[in-house]
Design goal:
The protein is α+β, with helices and mostly antiparallel strands and 262 residues long. Helix content is 33%, strand content 29%. Helix 1 (3-13) packs across helix 7 (227-238), helix 2 runs antiparallel to helix 4 (107-114) and helix 6 (216-224) crosses helix 7. It is elongated and about 60 Å long.
Length: 262
């Protein structure tokens, strides 16, 4: 992609940002991993899938599952028939313990019996949350979440990752996180499938998605002393990727883990 395209994509993304797991605060440095399932219901069976999944989530809560799942559906993007489940945050060893728990409580067995008949296919990933280079205040609760994903070029090298960290540290150290109404962001890297780097943003409404003034590019230009220096950083970042994709997800309380106190 042309350099100006990368500048526009990144500048438009770094708005009032948030994340999918609003219970975690930056200062706590939570565990790094998120469990991610992308599920596509069979054509014409979305209603049956939804009803079965609701009952299954109630089953998981009643069984005493240790993880809390947040569900999302796309409202802007190119694939609109996906249901997205996320559970955060844990360490690698926790995944081993969860597999044992899943078997003991019969969670997968119940899903396979009652929900899987309505599923066309699945994608399963782990994601690494980069808390150190993210800014994550409380109250970033959506209900809309914009996610831009960059797909790595083969042999891209460490340069783009180093620039990403520079972006974040300048933003954190120079006050971008506190500017205006506040800016929040979360960096993610996918484990499994095509290598992906992503950043997630939280919006209270569609009006909240309007581009910021000044943009992050303008902010960075001021802090670096020139637009040329900022452009060089964006070009170095963009050189590591073959393409990008942007999706806005909406939180789906109906398919998320129910409140066990209710």
């Amino acid at each position: 992609m042309k350099k100006i395209t990368w500048i526009a994509v990144f500048a438009a993304m770094v708005l009032p940002l948030g994340a999918f797991a609003d219970q975690h605060v930056e200062a706590e440095q939570p565990a790094p991993l998120t469990d991610v399932w992308m599920i596509v219901p069979k054509a014409g069976m979305d209603a049956k899938f939804t009803e079965a999944a609701k009952k299954h989530m109630a089953f998981r809560a009643k069984a005493g599952e240790s993880r809390t799942w947040m569900a999302f559906r796309p409202v802007i993007g190119k694939k609109m028939n996906i249901v997205h489940f996320r559970a955060c945050c844990f360490d690698y060893a926790d995944q081993d313990a969860y597999i044992v728990e899943d078997e003991k409580l019969g969670l997968a067995a119940d899903w396979n019996k009652n929900v899987d008949p309505y599923v066309d296919h699945y994608h399963h990933y782990l994601e690494i949350n980069d808390w150190e280079n993210s800014h994550w205040p409380e109250g970033s609760n959506g209900p809309y979440y914009g996610a831009t994903s960059w797909f790595w070029k083969e042999g891209a090298g460490p340069g783009p990752s180093e620039v990403r960290k520079e972006f974040s540290q300048i933003a954190k150290n120079e006050g971008w996180g506190e500017a205006g109404d506040g800016h929040n962001w979360l960096w993610l890297e996918r484990i499994g499938g095509q290598p992906v780097l992503a950043i997630v943003s939280s919006f209270e409404s569609y009006a909240d998605m309007a581009p910021d003034e000044p943009s992050f590019f303008g902010f960075l230009s001021e802090k670096l002393g020139s637009a040329e220096k900022a452009s060089e950083m964006f070009a170095k970042f963009g050189a590591g990727f073959q393409s990008s994709d942007y999706t806005v997800w909406m939180y789906d309380a109906e398919l998320s883990s129910p409140n066990r106190e209710e």
